[in-house]
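Q: Hi! First time asking for a complex rather than a single chain. Here are the components, and I think there are two in total. Is that enough to go on?
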Amino acid sequence: MIEIERKFLVNSYAFKKESFKKTRIVQGFLNTHKERTVRVRLKGDKGFLTIKGQSSKDGLARFEWETEISIKDANGLIELCESGVIDKVRYEVQVKNHIFEIDEFLGDNEGLIIAEVELNSKNEGFEMPIWLDKEVTGDIKYYNSQLSQDPFCNWGK
Amino acid sequence: MIEIERKFLVNSYAFKKESFKKTRIVQGFLNTHKERTVRVRLKGDKGFLTIKGQSSKDGLARFEWETEISIKDANGLIELCESGVIDKVRYEVQVKNHIFEIDEFLGDNEGLIIAEVELNSKNEGFEMPIWLDKEVTGDIKYYNSQLSQDPFCNWGK
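A: Yes, that's all I need. Here is the structure of the assembled complex.
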C-alpha cells in the first residue's frame, strides 16, 4: 500500500501530557538503500518486519509493506542488522480527528523529537498543535534508516 | 534457524527422469549484501520472504529465516527489488534418504544447473548420484544473490 505522511520537528515536551499511549521501539535495518529499506522492529510486546520503497518526488507518499513476526524472530533478525540500532519512545496524541505519532529518540539520536501525521490524501488539512516546529517531510536525513547510519549526535561535527 | 547445505554443479540432464516434482521459481533481492540478503520468491502458487545471514567459514551453515506471503504481496515486492530477477525451474529428486533440489536456470543464467542437499549435521554422509559434478559449497559466485548481479552469461567476459 501507499502511505501519505507529513513529518515535523517538535520544539517542546508539551505533547507528553496530551499523549494517550507510550511505547518503546527498538529497530534495526537489514538495508538502508534509499530505493528500498527493510526494517526489523520491536514495538512494545510485538515484532514487525517492514519494507518501504522510495518516496514520491514531493516526499509525501511511499510504498510500505508490513508483516507481524514473533518477538523471538525479531530479536534474531535485529542481530543480523547493519550496525546503528534505533531506540526511541513513541507517544501518540489525538489532535482533533488526526493522530500524531511523536518519536523521542534515545541513544545516539537523543535530542531529536519528530512528529508524523498520516493523511488520507495529499491535500488533506489538519490542526497544527503548538508544539510542532519546522516541516521535514521528505528530508532523507530524518529517515530512521539514515539516522541509524548518521545519528543526530554526529550532526554538525 | 541454521541450515546446513552442500552444493554441486550438475553435468547432465539425467536427473530429470528421476525427479518427482518440478516447480517454477522467480525471485528478486531487496539486498545482496554478503552479511545479509533479503529475498522475495514466487514458487509455484506461493510467495515467500526469506532472510539469510552470512555463511560460516566452511560455507556449510547459514542463518535462514522465512515467512510465507501472498502472491500479490510477492509480486509487489519483486517490483521493488534490485535489478536482476532470477528465473529457474527446480526439480526435486530423492536419492536414498536425501532429497536433492536441482535448479536449472533460465534467462541470463541459462546453462547453469546447481544441485543442493540439506544435511542434519556437517559430517552427515549421503549417496552421490552420477549426475553430480564439482562441489561449489560456499563459493559466493554461485549464490543466487550474486547470480542476480553477475549472471552466468557474463562469466569469462
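A: The CA atoms of residues 88 and 105 of chain A lie 4 Å apart. Let me know if you'd like any chain examined more closely.
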